[in-house]
Amino acid sequence: MAHNGLDAFKENHESKVIDASRKLRVAIIGCGWIAESHMVSYLKQPDVEIVAACDLIPGKAKAFMSRFGLDNIPTDYPSHKEMLDDKSLKLDAVSVCTYNRQHAIPTIYALNKGVNVLLEKPFTVTLEEAVDVMKAEKKSGKVLSIGFQPRLDANMKMIKKIVESGELGKIYYIQTGGGRRRGIPTPFGTSFIDDKTAGLGALADIGCYSLDMCLNAIGYPKPLTVSGYKSDFFGKDPNYPGYGSHHEYADIFSVDDFAAAFIRLEGDIIVDFRISWAMNMDTAGDTLILGTKGGLKIPSTECWNGSVGGPMKIYHDVCGQQTETVVPIINDLKHDESLFDRKIRSFLDAVKNNTAAPVPTSQILYNQAILDGIRRSAEAGHEVEINIPKI
């Protein structure tokens, strides 16, 4: 049956039937703030059984599970190793929800044990770590998906559809980023702001999302060079209003609260990038995707929330006239559904059906290479090349 090309822009709202006859046995590694979002979504799934959890802090995993009424599952593991070594658990999958610098180690161990992994973003801290994880993934043959739920938003999918339709022509320049006027994430303690745990700051927390929004839309071309800058003026200020009475946070702060970069990609594409946790401005600017036939403006948000800040606009010529086409906001989330739920569901479906990861490491490797390149360039004070090893 012939299909009109415009059908590609239609969303499929059909509900999937989930086979609950076989339950996937899932465990949580790291029981901090982000693990709560994983748990809330897992508990909505009819084909999931939470069978274990672990955390490096004694008693934390037990207290975490008790909040969800799961008092009888094993949590008294000193680390992820003992839990993954416990054959009685018969694990199908784990969510790795540790702080950034601990992403690689438990992920590699789980893959080596033959367990599928949903790894929270960012992928890792360094490019070298990401490569090590991918080597373990390749050897294991298991599903490893990275936690980029914003790309499951209908508006993000529309950005990709617009680019792929050819409406913009050849893409040659992208301005992107995002940020917060005052938004250093200290309400969750200091794990986000301490280099020993986070490794990267705003770059890893929200910068990876804005890069993915554009890079995924244009097919993730390989990054070639980066000229980067990062600063910590707000984080190092003991009078930063977000710290309240915790003036000592300024001494602990050892990551970036602002970063910017000029990134060259294969295909003669330039990315002008900026991201912030704190700045004296309401926005770091809208996202612009410029092409030879048209340009797309994506309104910024006050705080990165996984979607766009308002209706998008395509700037193009129609019959010789300069024209602006408004792309309305799409909301296809069902009642009580979140993007996090979609992230969890897409991972579970890949595990059950033995299909490709919904957010593959082969793409996010380039994302991580850029973040790592920005850090290296900022510390070196000059442009650096990005060299990605063959895996």
Percent of residues in β-strands: 15-25%
Uncertain regions spanning at least 5 consecutive residues: 1-11
* Derived structural class: alpha/beta
Shape: globular
Describe this entry's structure for a reader:
The structure is a single chain. With 391 residues, the chain is of the alpha/beta class. The strands form two sheets. The protein has a nine-stranded mixed beta sheet with strand order 13-12-11-10-6-9-8-7-14. Strands 2-1-3-4-5 form a five-stranded parallel beta sheet, sandwiched between helices. Strand 8 and strand 9 form a beta hairpin. Helix 1 crosses helix 9 and helix 4 packs parallel to helix 5.
Write the layout of secondary structure elements.
Elements: E1 24-29, H1 33-42, E2 48-54, H2 60-67, H3 80-85, E3 93-96, H4 104-112, E4 116-120, H5 127-140, E5 144-147, H6 154-164, E6 171-179, H7 202-217, E7 223-231, H8 249-252, E8 258-265, E9 269-276, E10 287-291, E11 294-298, E12 312-318, E13 321-327, H9 339-353, H10 361-380, E14 384-385
Parallel strand pairs: 1-2, 1-3, 3-4, 4-5, 6-9
Antiparallel strand pairs: 6-10, 7-8, 7-14, 8-9, 10-11, 11-12, 12-13
Helix pairs in contact: 1-9, 4-5, 5-10, 6-7, 7-10
